Amino acid sequence: MISLETIDIPREKLLDMYRRMQLIRRFEYTVKDLFARAVIIGALHLYAGEEAVAVGAISNLRPNDYVMSTHRGHGHLIARGADVNGMMAELYGKEDGLCKGKGGSMHMADMKLHVFAQPIVAGGMPLAVGAALASKMSRTDGVALAFFGDGASNQGSTHESMNLASIWKLPVVFICENNQYAESTAASYAVAGGSVAKRGMSYSIPSEAVDGMDVLAVYKAVSKAVGRARSGEGPSLLECITYRYEGHEEGDPWETYRTKQEVEEWKKRDPITNFGQYLVKTKIANEKDLESIRTDVEKAISNAISYAEKSPLTDMKEATKDVFTDSYN
Amino acid sequence: MSSQTATIERVEKQDRELTYRQAIGEALAQEMARNPKIFIMGEDVRIFYGGGPFAVTQKERFLDKFGPERIRDTPISESAFIGAGVMAAVAGFHPVTELMFSDFFGVCMDQIANQGAKLRYMFGGQSKVPLTIRIAYGAGMSFGATHSQTLYSIFAHIPGIKVVAPSTPYDAKGLLTAALREENIVAFFEHKALYGTKGGIVPEEQYVIPLGKGDVKRAGKDATVVATGKMVHLALQAADQLEKDGISVEVIDPRSLVPLDKATILQSVKRTTRLVIVDEDHSRCGFSAEVAAIAADEAFGMLDAPIKRVTTYDVPLPYAKHLEEAVLPSVQRVTDAVRQTLPS
């Protein structure tokens, strides 16, 4: 962990960051279990292991900022403050789901909070540029965070978006979550030059590689980038080096492209355990404080399940609604 | 790019017979003056060819009047700037993004089909996407295989995109004004070969032609011809020729493919009992197939002849003039098709 002395975060906020990381982790392992029992269907991409990135980054934001997430989006939504009841109901395909059960895991959105997931790899990059353009043209100081993976770093629209954001000096922070694998393909194989951060140079975008397992390091780097964006200095690129604990998607045979030993090595640097220990060591919190947070999180998760279970199935009529703002479809 | 599009045409006060290009420019300029949320993003929209790749966004009327923030030249990055348009729309603007040739859909269709068209639905109605995408299309200029296609059927195929294809300056102005007041994504198809054409008075004041309202371009009783874009003019020429032989043809221009004015088409077919569809798109899985299927489904008992289609053959567009003409619909092919539907 980097030292807290270099950043100024109030105690309440630190504890809230810890709570959000725990909430993400517990949410993910809960839905993993529900998926295994076929209560939740479709495709499920878990964020466990990467919590420090979403929470460290999004804790810098204000309500008028935007967050563009990915197929691995639950973490970003929870970090942004999305209601886990609505998220769980969405996964159950119920009426009280954030998207009335029409989006599912990969297309989860809370537009009031300016956060949404879209699962086309690098598809959110142009959208983040658009959100930043809208902020700039509206003369607000809003910024857009564009989350993307090491896989997306090789997509054309990523490069188009960085170029456009740079020439127009748009308030966007490109945050690469380099979790080492694009599905089964290792970043060490697929990313020419071995660094996503270095690519920013080509677009005159200030770039930096960050320890993505350290929530405070991510917070600090994003804070600087957001500050630049708010003051009109244009985009930044951060490559957060992190790891996904589970497969690309639930059910994927991850042992075929990485070893158990590799996974265990990364888990020794667990972002939540480390952050918790750091909070205790620096006397910001004691074990009891953390235990009480974990208890609250468990309660929130079990509430979310009963909320989702009780919510009615979405009315069949909804299947043909919302194509357009009018009734034509 | 054709040099013939370089001519800047100015509108004389008395002469309200605008070209298609001028009518589109007027609709855009007037609505931009009315709505500060509208801005233009595209390649070469500021000064190239006097303003815009097809001289629609003339500098004096656009860049000089609205300034560089609302008239944005972009890098050649259709995915980035059309995607940015989608999200700027979600965030409260009404961007007008340009796709210089419909053939370029391949480099940006993710942003149009997976993002723009679907955000509202997949988020359960939480967002609106008031985005207009102006798209130049069509053959007849020897631009060859990758700059001549009529690809509106691909857009119409994706739920969530409204698709418009005007055939006249008057329709172009009214339909574009409607598109610019939409809360949905509209793909506005402009035929390249029509930009310099005139036809009818275009009122200076703003007016709206609602999307989904077809127009009977010529009334007739013996056969119905449904045509879009440049094909409307082909159909009208064919109708003129057939009239000399005492054959009365009704020509219907749906004007928008999505929403489609099925009622106007079906009412006509029920009256004439014969249907020919003229479409510059390819026939396979194209718009013509859709209209034929609707007629077969909903007016089958009223038809006295098989439905005929006149379309571009299912080959890429060739460069050489005589070869290009050979694969495109022609007046002759339309008159032949109409005659085939009539008793011999």
Determine the fraction of residues in helical runs of chain B and give it as a percent range: 25-40%
Strand line-up of the largest beta sheet of chain A = 2-3-1-4-5-9-8
Oligomer classification: heterodimer
Radius of gyration of chain A: 19 Å
- What is the overall pLDDT average of chain A? 97
* Structural class category of chain B: alpha/beta
The helix count of chain A comes to: 11
Spatial extent as radius of gyration of chain B: 20 Å
How would you sum up the global shape of chain A? globular
Overall shape of chain B: it is: globular
Q: Based on helices, strands and strand pairing, what is the structural class of chain A?
A: alpha/beta
Number of domains of chain B: 2
* CATH topology title of the largest domain in chain B: Rossmann fold
Q: Would you count the extended β strands of chain A for me? A: 9
List low-confidence stretches of chain B: 1-9
Total number of helical segments of chain B? 12
Describe the structure in your own words.
The complex is a heterodimer of chains A (329) and B (344). Chain A has 329 residues and is of the alpha/beta class. Chain A has eleven helices and nine strands. Chain A has helices at 11-36, 51-58, 74-80, 84-91, 124-137, 156-167, 187-190, 215-230, 260-267, 271-281, 287-310, and strands at 66-69, 109-110, 115-117, 144-149, 172-178, 181-182, 185-186, 207-211, 236-241. Chain A is globular, with a radius of gyration of 19 Å. The model of chain A has no long low-confidence stretch (mean pLDDT 97). Chain B is of the alpha/beta class and 344 residues long. Chain B contains twelve helices and twelve strands. Chain B has helices at 20-34, 63-70, 78-90, 109-116, 119-122, 152-157, 169-180, 230-244, 262-272, 287-298, 321-327, 331-341, and strands at 38-42, 71-73, 94-99, 132-137, 162-164, 186-191, 215-218, 223-227, 249-253, 256-258, 275-282, 308-312. In chain B, the strands form two sheets. Chain B has a seven-stranded mixed beta sheet with strand order 2-1-3-4-6-5-10, with helices on both faces. In chain B, α3 (78-90) packs parallel to α4. The interface between A and B is large, with 45 and 44 residues.
